[in-house]
Amino acid sequence: MPHEEALRWDDVRVLLAILKTGSFTLAARALGTDQSTVSRRVAALEARLGAVLFERTARGPRPTELAERLREAAERVGDEMHRFADAAAGHEPSVRGRVRIATSEGLAIHVLVPRVLPVIARAHPELVIELSTGERAVDLSAREADIALRFFRGGRGDLVIVKVATIPTAILARRRVARRVRGAPAAALPWIVVDVPGLETREAAWVQKLGGAARLVCTSYEVQLAAIRAGLGVGVVPRAVLDTHRELVALDDHPPGPALELFLVTRRAIRKQPRIEAVVDILLAQLKPLGA
Questions:
Q1: Residue 271 and which of 63, 96, 104, 164 are 20 to 30 A apart at CA?
Q2: What does residue 194 show for φ and ψ, rounded to 5 degrees?
Q3: Which domains does the chain have, with CATH numbers?
Q4: Whole-model pTM over 0.85
């Protein structure tokens, strides 16, 4: 067994990243490095420990019993290092540096990029915004992002959660499709739905409750919107999309879709840092009208 000083925080970060993502490649992406570096770090750590941490299989690295035993202790070390970094960053004298925002691809494309990021850039030119998109819920306590915008409440750690807006949805269709299905019951509509593995959405549950059967299943909300715009069917989409896609209309002879609640989440330890507070204030101001 190595002396304690032989183990470094970077070793723990690599171990945690692989345990969390289940992949050397994804761990490298999360750490901002490359797979070969992660592989070398794991090999070096295993050499220092004198034991194997991951079995290399065709399906990816499989944690050994030792790696699983180390998981809880590694998470505690990670939490303490994150708290240390948060405290060290608390002295920031001005609004500058990097702010990492995690959100869905649709919200980024249709709202953040055209409406919000230009406001941030004009107000705080020394800020660097890192925008991470996807449907996976990031772990803020593990510092995967500084701010998350998402459609559910909750998360691990000491978080500040603010409800930003309640966004109305509707059944949208291209105009010619809307004319064709006018008067048809919901169960007979050509539904385009989103099915993201591991994610149960209110929209999909609502369509199922209506007795609707999917004509097309997508794993992306942007693909769903593209399919609706192409006239392939109808789907549950935020009504705000009508402002930018004039070829679409709402099927208002059917009930409105389920309202989506948008939450802004950040860690309490960094909430009052100037760079975080500045971005949060702009996000809240610019996103509240989505609920109008």
A1: 104
A2: -110, 130
A3: 4-87 (1.10.10.10), 97-163+261-291 (3.40.190.10), 169-258 (3.40.190.10)
A4: no
